[in-house]
Fold:
Amino acid sequence: MKKGLFLYCSDKRTAFNFEKKLKEELGLKLKEIFNDLAAVESDVETILLIDQGDIPSDYHFKGKNYFILTHGMDFSRWKNFYRRGIDVIKIDDHLYYLGLKLSSLGYRIIKDQETPEEDIVFKPRFVSDRIDDNFRKGITTIYSIKDGIGKTNISLSLAAYTRKNTSDTRVVILDLDSCFSGIRKFVDKNSGVSEVDLGAGSVLLELGKKMYKHEKTDLFLVPYEKEIETDQEKTSPRLVDILEELKRGFDLIVIDTGSQINNLPLTAISCSSTLFLITDHRNYIQRETVDLARKTLHEQGIIVPNTYFVINKVKHAESFSTGDFEKRFSFKVAGVIDYDGNISDYEDKKLIYSLSDKKNSLLDCIKSMSSILGFESEGRVKSKFRDIFS
Structure:
């Protein structure tokens, strides 16, 4: 048996980039790279195969352990491998899931080559004894495993609807998306947004963050300041302090996280009483999101009191069976949002699409989410948010 990690990839440049990423993120080195599928030897310990559409679904895999890696995912191909009990792991954004698999096989995952003695710690390291059910009250996190699914638009819609439709409810959005800050884009695009004076002693001020207020709705926003936060580690250790500060002034804190799996979103989820997981109509996205809720959070010791799914961008949403989804995955569905080109256009602009009294699937979903959080509608929304946020 040839010990170690081996790689198959038909494209040499892709193989080179993956080898570099594997070393940087997981601290692991490859023993050998095969560019020809027929050349893969049967006595290797672990073989990683990057599928670029060239691995037959009935391929007889060699080696003691083997994993299919993909950039993106063709569901029909994924289904064929999955039916055979073969793990298919997406590696578009990070190698987190691959790291978990290899760690379970006994491979020592390290943070980087400069500190080989330090094992990777995926568990949120900054959650303290201050976190209990009382602390979590009023904090909700919106998360999706993939960008572009509509997470930020739903976060903004939920926060704006709850603020506009309930009396004396103070709402703030805390943006923790370090890669694609839609909240930052939203703030920059709206002329009716003004900066709020945080005052001396503020944790936000200490960390170089700013708070903004949309005057027409009294909705408050704390966007991610990427020019200041070059490293998420500056925020993660103080996230509990930030939330404690915000809880003193707000009834509802909506956290819009990035899709990465690291300390910042994991800590945010740990601090939340409710987690809304945003997925779409694609089966593999739904399954990966379920795996996050069912396996990943459990493995990290994270227990969220309430977890709900929101199914976005579904064609013919009225025909989507939430009962089948809930029975299949054992998770409750907060709402199903129909695919709408106008909504997608507003998502691209990072504005709020129409949430008026006119019945639509987005409004129904937001009403359900707000009700789940304990904010009952008072029927105060009369004008379209499209007009409010302009």
Residues 133-388 form a domain with the Rossmann fold fold (CATH 3.40.50.300). Residues 112-123, 381-390 have pLDDT under 50 and may be disordered. DSSP finds 14 helices and 14 strands in the chain. The first helix runs from residue 12 to 26.
